[in-house]
Amino acid sequence: MFVLELSYAAPLDRVDALMKDHAGWLDTQYAAGVFIASGRKNPRDGGVILAVGDDRAEIERLAATDPFAVHGVCVYRITEFIATRTSDALAPHRQQL
10 Å Cβ neighbour count for 61? Predict the structure, then answer.
């Protein structure tokens, strides 16, 4: 599992101009079953995405296709972790050591 932390690298007006494209990109990843949660950070200086997958390189490639990344309004920090405990709703994503 991966935590994708977005940090804005541009003023919010540039971020907001790309929000519709970014939301469409998110929708595609939710439909594909890769993203399971996302949202803005508070204060609003970026966002967080929770993603499932086994291949860090694939998650990095995917993050690079985000319109925010393509247009340079955010940078990604990707953290991989092993989700050995989850809520019942996320049980299908539990991992073993």
Answer: 10
φ and ψ at residue 3, rounded to 5 degrees:
-105, 120
Distances (CA, A) of 86 to 37, 92, 96: 13, 9, 12
> In this predicted model, what pLDDT tens digit does every residue of 34-52 receive, in sequence order?
999 999 999 999 999 999 9
Q: State pTM to two decimals.
A: 0.94
Neighbours of 52 (CB within 10 A): 16
CA atoms within 13 A on the CB side of 73: 18
Which pair of structure tokens corresponds to residue 61?
């490639």
Structure tokens at 41: 């950070």
Residues 6+ apart with CB under 8 A from 96: 84
